Amino acid sequence: MSKSSLQIDRDHFDRMMDEVSVFGATPAGGLDRQTASIADGEARRWLLEQFQAAGLKTLIDPVGNMFGILELAGPDADIVLAGSHLDSQPKGGRFDGAYGVVAAVAAARAVKQAMSGSAHPATKNLAVVNWTNEEGARFAPSLLGSHVFTGKLDIQSARSATDAKGVTLGDALDAIGFAGTDDAPRNIHSYLEIHIEQGPFLEAEKKSIGVVEGNWGTAKYEVDFHGKSAHTGPTPMAERRDPLVPVAELILFVRMLSDETRVSGWTSCPSPSRVTRASRTGRSANAERAAST
Whole-structure pTM over 0.70, yes or no? Predict the structure, then answer.
């Protein structure tokens, strides 16, 4: 197979991107397609159809990771795995994750067509993957599906993860019909993922593509701040125990760390997700999730 014989059908690629972007589409042109939601189930069924149309063998593991395998070199050959994720943030972009999955499907179709007329036998199989809960917007942790695949998280713990309403990932996957029973393929030779940059650097430098040389790691913290309710008028300032004061100080502190480390350190401080006033008997007030770095 020569480079000239490998041609991506751009029109078909564009159609696939337009089709998958319908599921969970927002009025502004983005996505709300969180893991194991109705929209995610629709996108997954669409991907199954693409696997079938491309002649890929489908495997779905117990946490919903989807694999479409193109057997070119026999069932026992090593696999070049490519893909990304279809789930999104609540207000995500249409290309985030989905671009990598659609590109992998398009590549599999092109390779299959090129190999059908090649005199050189393939030495590897090719597979497309859709990782479950890569974004982590609904269930924690993020990268959940790939964590299970790499052995960093066991299946039961992953399926027991709960969303804000107490729904487990296992129940949510059951509800949309994507809690599989297949074993994930293990004979992986290499992994490829094409992804939008999500930053300003390529565009600023007028570059169309960049090769990743490294990745950022995260440490996430959930912090409780305890305060005490008191009258807003006569209570002396020195006796007040307002939990939002240390919250603000911590937010400013981690931002200072980011400024000092420049490009080698990044911080993010989401707004407190729950602040509860204490009763006058002195029970604690919480400002949860005040900082993550």
Answer: yes
